[in-house]
Amino acid sequence: MRQYSSVYASICATLIAGGLLVCSNPGAVLAAVRVCLPHVTSSVIKDRSEQNAKRRALLDWVEKAKKAGIEHPSWRIANSKVLKCVSRNGFHECVAHGAPCTIKQKAPPPTKPPGSEDVEV
Length: 121
Fold this sequence. Notes:
With about 120 residues, this protein is of the alpha+beta class.
């Protein structure tokens, strides 16, 4: 253990001297978790420009994700996301579908699956 502490201290001192890191207790580990809600689907957005149709579909998806309960939704961290477009009669129709997620610094408490209530004997 002593060897580990001296190696850790040496690495920290080197990085601090370079201004790259402020070291803390090596035993303390903090992890962020991604928490996702059920899928949200945008309205079908129609535009002559495919780029504009995609952009507007994503903006609509973000608004619907906010209404679903994600304070600052981001398509970038959404789960199982799909952005589909089809061309018809000179227009592009696009729709965005995905599970909105957020990053929590503390994991939510574990939940029990339905039907697994504690039974007294």
